[in-house]
């Protein structure tokens, strides 16, 4: 026999009978529903727009956490636990600390580079700086001379490429590669992307892959950046080949061509300098560094973060 509730008991003179409806609900609801309904009833009975003390404390704690931040690694940890840049806001303090760490690492890299490129100092007075300076920064569209990253034992090759994009990376834990609009020191770079130009008679052409009639783009780690041609006069013209592909031709003027020729003549020495630089910058030793308004702390060596990005450039 199937139980069928009498609908007439829920109506009284064409009006709903609340008592009958509540009784019918109680007959079918579970214990969990009963507890939920009692909780909801207490919230309904509370004064409107008045939070309990527990809710107020929870809301205040959430505001404090969101204002102070919750970083527990890298520069953020140094800022919080050493009191770096007391009185400044957290975000500017982290940025200042990051820039300081980058400058320290860049200075150490330049010291290693001066040692590695000492034999080629006669080519140009800024060869150990890769001719990248504060008043002569490297920008997208500039040309550089670089050594092709290759496997150990392969024949070294000197390249000319046009800067497509540049990346920097701090050397603290958790740091990420960040795109840079300009480089004022080769020590600030992590790697760059270039469009390769190959020799074509008296010119250099962007049609580097002849079988495919296309351009070639390479990732160059900072250890393989040899010399920046920013500031040198380079004539560039755009043409279209028989396949209607855009081809760029550049002509190096006398001063830039002389630097390139001297580096090409000393290619074995250039390759040896790059290998020495890689060895010097791959050490894992730490040196104490004093940051402004802080106590002494240990920062990793100049280039331990580059071991992954430069490991393929033997």
Describe the structure.
The protein has 314 residues and is of the alpha+beta class. The chain is built from seven helices and 15 strands. The longest helix has 27 residues, at 90-116. The protein is elongated and about 105 Å long. Residues 74-89 and 285-312 have low confidence and may be disordered.
Task: From the structure above, extract its key features.
314 residues; alpha+beta; 9-stranded antiparallel β-sheet; two-stranded antiparallel sheet; 7 helices
List the helices and strands and how they pair.
Blueprint: E1 11-12, E2 15-16, H1 18-28, H2 31-45, H3 53-68, H4 74-82, H5 90-116, E3 138-139, E4 143-147, E5 158-168, E6 178-180, E7 182-183, E8 189-200, E9 203-205, E10 217-221, E11 225-228, E12 234-240, E13 246-252, H6 254-265, H7 267-281, E14 286-289, E15 297-300
Antiparallel strand pairs: 1-2, 3-7, 4-5, 4-11, 5-6, 5-8, 8-9, 8-10, 9-13, 12-13, 14-15
């Amino acid at each position: 026999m199937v139980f069928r509730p009498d609908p007439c008991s829920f109506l009284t003179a064409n009006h709903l009978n609340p008592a009958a409806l509540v009784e019918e609900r109680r007959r079918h609801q579970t214990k969990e529903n009963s507890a939920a309904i009692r909780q909801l009833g207490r919230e309904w009975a509370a004064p409107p727009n008045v939070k309990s003390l527990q809710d107020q404390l929870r809301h205040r704690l959430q505001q404090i956490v969101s204002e102070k931040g919750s970083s527990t690694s890298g520069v953020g940890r140094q800022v919080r636990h050493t009191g770096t840049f007391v009185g400044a806001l957290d975000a500017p303090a982290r940025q200042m600390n990051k820039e300081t760490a980058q400058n320290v690492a860049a200075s150490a890299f330049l010291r290693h580079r001066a040692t590695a490129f000492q034999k080629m100092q006669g080519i140009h007075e800024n060869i150990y700086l890769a001719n990248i300076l504060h008043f002569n920064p490297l920008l997208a569209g500039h040309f550089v001379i670089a050594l092709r990253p290759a496997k150990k034992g392969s024949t070294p090759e000197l390249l000319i490429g046009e800067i497509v994009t540049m990346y920097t990376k701090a050397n603290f834990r958790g740091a990420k590669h960040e795109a840079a609009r300009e480089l004022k020191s080769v020590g600030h770079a992590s790697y760059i992307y270039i469009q390769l130009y190959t020799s074509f008679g008296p010119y250099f052409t962007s049609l580097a892959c002849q079988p495919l009639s296309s351009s070639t783009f390479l990732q160059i780690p900072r250890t393989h950046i040899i010399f920046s041609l920013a500031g040198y006069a380079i004539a560039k013209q755009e043409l279209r080949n028989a396949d209607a592909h855009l081809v760029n031709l550049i002509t190096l003027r006398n001063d830039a061509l002389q630097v390139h020729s001297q580096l090409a003549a000393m290619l074995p020495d250039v390759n040896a300098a790059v290998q020495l630089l890689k060895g010097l910058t791959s050490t894992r030793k730490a040196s104490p560094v004093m940051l402004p308004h802080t106590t002494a702390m240990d920062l990793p060596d100049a280039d331990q973060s580059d071991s992954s990005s430069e490991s393929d450039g033997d």
